[in-house]
Specification:
Blueprint: H1 3-16, H2 22-29, H3 32-38, H4 46-55, E1 58-62, H5 75-93, E2 98-100, E3 103-105, E4 133-137
Antiparallel strand pairs: 1-4, 2-3
Helix pairs in contact: 2-4
Length: 142
């Protein structure tokens, strides 16, 4: 495999993000510029794209199941939580309805307007659920 072409393909794959497919290579190689550079007279096949991925050190792996880790302890995330999110929630808390075992707790002043906050965290667990198998470089993990 030509090293220049290999670098161009790897740069293209990195620009696509973590989920790549053999079809991404096929579409990239079938552009007029690449066909002219490679001197090919017919379009590349999906099998060729898969073969090139294997040659470049990629393998098809099944997505591992396990605990979700989102990096909530990173410095920038903690800074955002402490200096932006929590102060904003405290400000909203002044106009939110409050409840205890006996029912609603009325706080003064009652302006007749309340802030209602809906907490919903299920959406993050369904992101990329359709991705069961993906191409991963040997130096990376799924």
């Amino acid at each position: 495999m030509d090293e220049d072409i290999r670098q161009e393909i790897e740069a293209h794959l990195h620009s696509l993000g973590p989920f790549i497919s053999a079809m991404d290579i096929v579409e990239f190689l079938n552009t007029p510029d690449m066909c002219e550079h490679l001197g090919c007279d017919k379009p590349m096949s999906l099998w060729t794209g898969q073969h090139w991925l294997k040659t470049m050190g990629y393998c098809c792996k099944r997505e591992k199941k396990g605990q979700y880790s989102d990096g909530h302890e990173q410095e920038d995330v903690v800074k955002y939580q402490q200096h932006v999110f929590l102060p904003a929630m405290a400000k909203y808390g002044e106009t939110m309805r409050k409840w205890n075992e006996g029912g609603e707790v009325i706080t003064e002043p009652n302006t007749g307007r309340h802030t209602i906050v809906w907490f919903h965290d299920e959406s993050i667990f369904y992101a990329h659920d359709c991705q069961k198998v993906c191409w991963v470089h040997d130096s990376e993990t799924v």
